[in-house]
Specification:
Oligomer: single chain
Strand order of the largest sheet: 3-4-2-1-12-11
Length: 440
């Protein structure tokens, strides 16, 4: 039986920032070169030389590759595949953090959804997606703390659903920075009909009833981040109840689905997940450090062509529904409660953005008045030693004024227009669902 072996890994490849980057990328490249994966998706592969190193290592087995470009520093996304690439695209997310958050860096790297369409010998066109969501927001507290991630989720859900509606199989991989029970993952899975490969292959695992070991967290619950088994995890006890309960977080996913059924594709091969595992959990050879600050996740997707053989049966699609909702000919949709929660978070974020912009523009105005006062007052300063201090202070106030003008006016308007776009899209989506609901 044909199968597709897929792996996804966040490489933590920030130049000058990520620890042991050269040693880790070399180890990742070597491990992938000796693997049997048909599709590889990498995130945080920011340095093009690192991408080239991995590409050269896997080239004999995976000759078709794509590095995605977006933002000032790149998207950090790359896909390597066994089968020919016939189309590529990059969809930057409209909100990716704030420019003032230089240490977070999300705004500068242009996170988004990169995709390639491959021609598979059995499945035909398959669209592969690789993504990395905004990190800011955590899992605790009000949902509006994760507004940017919700926007990422909605925009990602739209493009993946569109790919299925175009008659393609979809395999989506990446670091979603979201735990399985989070609202962003709810948005993605509900709107797209994508199936979580880990959940599909571990449906028999019950929720933890007591304290887990770190190994159990990885083997049973798919932990890929903040695991005590990772050498880059902070040694201090975590304050997150999620981390304490599961010994880490599951943030990395491999999702898949079939094309949307239509009159022209009623005889579809079935794509199911036979197995999914967390990988790259060991230390790199000859060293004590982990491959990355994340573990990877792999999935083995099996292609069942038996579905193609029922050519005399007009209920082929119905026969595909028996094991998974992904084979339903009814589009998967967001629930009204999820829609209400998302739009509530977006509306609160919009109001918070207005308040923040007003505060930043007030600081800008105050800085301008202070600069004018300094210029006027400089005529009465005759102490030579004071001149360098004066110049530095003027430079600081000028920088502050410029930053506040950009943050409060340019970025503030940018942020609110992006939020307004998503709010209007969701309002229209909600009206469409209501109008299509059965009337009794």
């Amino acid at each position: 039986m044909d199968q597709v072996r897929v792996v996804s890994l966040n490489c933590w490849g920030l130049k000058y920032v990520s620890k042991d980057r050269h040693e880790r990328i070399a180890a990742i490249a070597s491990a992938l070169a000796h693997s049997d994966y048909d599709i590889i998706a990498l995130q945080e592969i920011w340095v093009e030389a690192d991408y080239n190193q991995v590409r050269q290592s896997v080239l004999p087995r995976l000759p078709y590759t794509k590095l995605f470009h977006s933002g000032a520093l790149g998207a950090g996304l790359a896909i390597f595949t066994k089968w020919p690439i016939i189309a590529t695209s990059m969809t930057p997310y409209s909100l990716n953090g704030e420019p003032i958050d230089a240490f977070g860096g999300d705004w500068y790297v242009g996170k988004g959804a990169g995709s390639v369409t491959i021609m598979h010998p059995v499945l035909g066109q398959v669209q592969l997606f690789d993504t990395h969501f905004c990190a800011k927001g955590g899992e605790q507290g009000p949902e509006y703390n994760r507004t940017y991630r919700l926007v990422n989720a909605w925009e990602f859900a739209k493009v993946t659903r569109q790919a299925a509606e175009m008659g393609r199989y979809v395999i989506a991989m990446g670091d979603f920075n979201s735990i399985p029970t989070s609202l962003p993952m709810n948005v993605i899975l509900s709107h797209t009909g994508l199936v979580d490969s880990w959940a599909a292959s571990h449906a028999h695992i019950p929720p933890p009833s007591g304290m887990l070991s770190p190994i159990e967290g990885v083997l049973k619950y798919g932990v890929t981040a903040d695991s005590p088994l990772n050498s880059y995890r902070d040694s201090k006890p975590s304050s997150s109840p999620i981390v304490r309960r599961y010994q880490g977080k599951r943030l990395d996913y491999i999702l898949f689905r079939h094309p949307s059924p239509s009159a022209t594709n009623t005889h579809l091969p079935r794509l199911t997940c036979r197995d999914s595992r967390v990988v790259f959990t060991d230390s790199i050879p000859g060293n004590t450090c982990s491959y990355s600050d994340h573990f990877g996740v792999e999935a083995t997707l099996v292609i069942d062509t038996q579905a193609e053989t029922h050519t005399e049966d007009h209920n082929d699609i119905a026969s595909l529904k028996d094991t998974s909702a992904m084979w339903s000919d009814t589009p998967s949709e967001l629930s009204s409660s999820a829609l209400t929660e998302v739009m509530g978070a977006l509306h609160i974020s919009y109001r918070m953005s207005v308040k923040r912009s007003r505060k930043e523009l007030a600081i800008f105005g105050s800085s301008i008045f202070l600069l004018i006062g300094l210029i006027i007052g400089s005529a009465w300063v005759v102490l030579p030693w004071f001149n360098p201090v004066f110049v530095l202070f003027v430079i600081f106030i000028s920088s502050l004024a410029t930053t506040m003008l950009y943050e409060g006016f340019i970025f503030g308007n940018w942020e609110r227009k992006a939020l307004q776009n998503v709010i209007e899209e969701l309002e229209l989506y909600e009206k469409t669902l209501v109008s299509q609901a059965p009337q009794y």
